[in-house]
Amino acid sequence: MLQTMRGAIFDLDGVIVDTAKYHYLAWAKLADELGFAFTEEHNERLKGVSRMRSLDILLEVGGQDFSEEDKLVMADKKNKLYVEYISTLNESELLPGVKDYLIGLRARGVGIALGSASKNAMFILDKLNIAELFDSIVDGNKVSRAKPDPEVFLIACAELALQPVDCVVFEDAEAGVQAAKAAGMQVVGIGRPEILKDADLVVAGLHVLEGLDRLN
């Protein structure tokens, strides 16, 4: 699978960098201002989910309801808090093995794409100093349907000028694994096997794959 792939499509949060903690801090602050607590356990429900759906889940937790107009204002406020938190990101926050693995793929001629729900993906990749390693960046500004819908991965595949069968997706969320499978792609799960049980291979991180490539 990994030795024959022609395209590699990566999720962002939890695969390239761990910005989940900053998302959580921003959502928790918003919830606090609305008068209820939003815990890390609640936050697990937001993994791999779009911003507006995440807000709906947060409001469900707080038992609150607002107009669509108010929710757009809240989502924008949360994003501004998040961008403020991640403004200090730098290359040191790349997850282990990420840059070496991407460089290795480029040396093999594998097309590299990002497939993320984040609307801040380009900002984050620039902060991490790895944007130039991607041939295609498909983020929340390019898609209208959130994972587990396969749209984000199908667009990335098309931008790499490849077929789904030629691509492998690297994902840390169950919804992302489902999206990749729905797109007709194989999946490497990054994280815990019990959560990513439908992935074709599960590893702790890209550093594991980078190490395996050196052995092959």
Largest sheet: 6 strands, parallel
SS summary, helix count = 9
**Reading side by side through the largest sheet, how are the strands ordered?**
3-2-1-4-5-6
Q: Can you name the CATH architecture of the largest domain? A: 3-Layer(aba) Sandwich
Q: What is the mean predicted local confidence, pLDDT?
A: 93
Question: What order do the helices and strands follow?
Answer: EHHHHHEHEHEHEEH
Tell me the structural class: alpha/beta
Shape: globular
CATH topology-level name of the largest domain? Rossmann fold
Number of strands: 6
Oligomer kind: single chain
| Portion in beta strands | 5-15%
Helix content: 40-55%
Rg from Cα: 17 Å
How many structural domains does the protein architecture include?
Answer: 2
Low-confidence regions: none
Distance between the termini: 14 Å
Can you identify the CATH class of the largest domain?
Alpha Beta
The CATH superfamily of the largest domain turns out to be HAD superfamily/HAD-like
